[in-house]
Amino acid sequence: MHPLRLMPLAVLLAACTACGDKATLEVSDGTGANPRLPPPNKTLLPTVNVAPAKGWAEGGLPTATTGTQVKAFAEGLDHPRWLYLLPNGDVLVAESNAPASDGGFSLKGWIAGKVMEKAGARTPSADRITLLRDTDGDGVADLKTPFLENLHSPFGMALVGGDFYIANADALVRVPYQEGQTRIDATPQKVTDLPAGINHHWTKNVIASRDGTKLYVTVGSNSNVGENGLEMEQGRAAIWEVDRASGTKRLFASGLRNPNGLAWEPETGALWTAVNERDEIGSDLVPDYITSVKDGGFYGWPWSYYGQHVDERVEPANPDMVARALVPDYALGPHTASLGIAFGKGGALPDFQNGLFVGQHGSWNRRPHSGYKVIFVPFKDGKPNGEPVDVLTGFLDADGNAQGRPVDVMLDARGALLVTDDVGNKVWRVTSTAQ
């Protein structure tokens, strides 16, 4: 055993905590179109403030905002992450976790692994997509069955015609699908490879263009700020455009440290994404964000953040790339780990029509915690407009333990909001109290 592995986790975490910092601003200060960005505060060791994964007590529920109610749509899942709605109303959920790392041993990586383990993010991957069906219309799935198994850390999903696409950690693959099918046993066929390797950020999402000719695939970075070498970042921190007919791909947008959620804005037709920004320069930096994605756009990573704010840790510097960096549309607060997004238009929640739902998985690099909730960002004329509204809270208990952690958000066939919870191992369903 490596000698460092004999060191108690508590000692390492205590050391990190002792050298960390505490936020001087509110999360709201780092939220909106013009977030406050204080000077970086790089400490000897990063701030580590983990919300230990506890799970929900029997009958426990998140807190739904006024005018809404919440109940479990499905329970007993294995680290549910991403959602997809099939045309017949069936709900698919990817039960998945990180693949084994190819990066070898490092002290920083080992500590990070232990931190994630404490947060409930180091269980073996189920490598499965499960089908959930509510046959009697009571808002609870009464059919839960394996839909597709033996995948490789699956995450995003997309259906175009009879082709069902899955974004695995290392490749975009495809299987045939017929409406109403509850299980697929066909062997997935590779469409295109996706950057893998160390897989610091393993989650890959996919969305189809409106006309079905293109697929857009997210690929996160292999590091925090390029510390594993920029040669390890080729094709990463980006969104790729894949041609369905040929399987060829091109970089659509880059400099996005860890893009996850993807959605088409209903008025303008623009592609939007949610991005997790960098860590380890203080509890107040850097805000995660949502932004419309410009074809050919560069968003700063690793050389700068939130536009052209230079990150001095990155060597060599690259002023030319910094000068190209676009400013994101809307900040979501530092270290909130904002993941899934879904526009509310056409849903069954009357107060949440014009805007974007965001699942915030929650912080580990901020004191006090941030995220651990689902919010709604109001939109007007295709752009964010106003302060975010809390939709689902209560994922942290009074002692700072994580009863649950929101991941993805999606409207179901009846317009209710579904939310995956990878600590509670549930899918929550939020409806109007008027229903």
UniProtKB/TrEMBL annotation:
Record-annotated Glucose/Sorbosone dehydrogenase domain positions: 198-359
Protein name per UniProt: Sorbosone dehydrogenase
InterPro entries for the chain: 6-blade_b-propeller_TolB-like, Glc/Sorbosone_DH, Quinoprot_gluc/sorb_DH_b-prop
Pfam families in alphabetical order: GSDH
Signal peptide: 1-23
Keywords for the protein's UniProt record, in alphabetical order: Signal
Record flagged with keyword Heme: no
Keyword Transcription in annotation: no
Matching PROSITE patterns: PROKAR_LIPOPROTEIN
Highest taxon of source: Bacteria
